[in-house]
Write a structure and sequence with these properties.
Elements lengths: L4 E6 L2 H11 L3 E8 L2 E7 L8 E6 L5 H10 L5 E4 L3 H10 L4 E7 L3 E7 L5 E7 L1
Parallel strand pairs: 1-4, 5-8
Antiparallel strand pairs: 2-3, 3-4, 6-7, 7-8
């Protein structure tokens, strides 16, 4: 068993694609019409054949309250690994990304949390 695709619920797939590619640096892998939405995935340029992130529409009635509760409590929906959290925070802030938690050293890990503009908080982390 292995993970091939994981998802993040987004309120607008086009806006999410722009954010995840233009700001975060992922590349579009799959874009297939699926009814009123798309099967839309992005991947890391460092692992283009690796795990795909599905930018999944948040249209199910349970998703909105779930996402709102996570954001209200400051809980990230997903986490991405970076080599240097401090450098990535600086790079992303330069692109206008808003952080709800700046880089924090937690001993064996450094983390930061940003708003993905699509209804989610996303954490970045680097192990020491």
């Amino acid at each position: 068993m292995r993970i091939r695709v994981t998802s993040v619920f987004v309120d607008d797939q086009t806006k999410a694609l722009d954010f995840y590619t233009e700001k975060l640096g992922f590349i579009k892998k799959t874009d297939v019409p699926a009814g009123d939405a798309r099967w839309l995935t992005v991947v890391s340029p460092a692992a283009s054949d690796g795990v795909e992130l599905l930018l999944e529409p948040d249209s199910h009635p349970a998703v909105g309250p779930f996402k709102q509760a996570l954001v209200a409590d400051g809980i990230p929906f997903a986490q991405f690994t970076v080599d240097d959290v401090h450098a990535e925070v600086e790079r992303l802030q330069g692109l206008g990304v808003e952080f709800t938690q700046g880089a924090i050293d937690m001993g064996p890990v450094v983390t930061a949390v940003f708003d993905d503009t699509c209804g989610n908080l996303i954490q970045i982390a680097a192990m020491r």
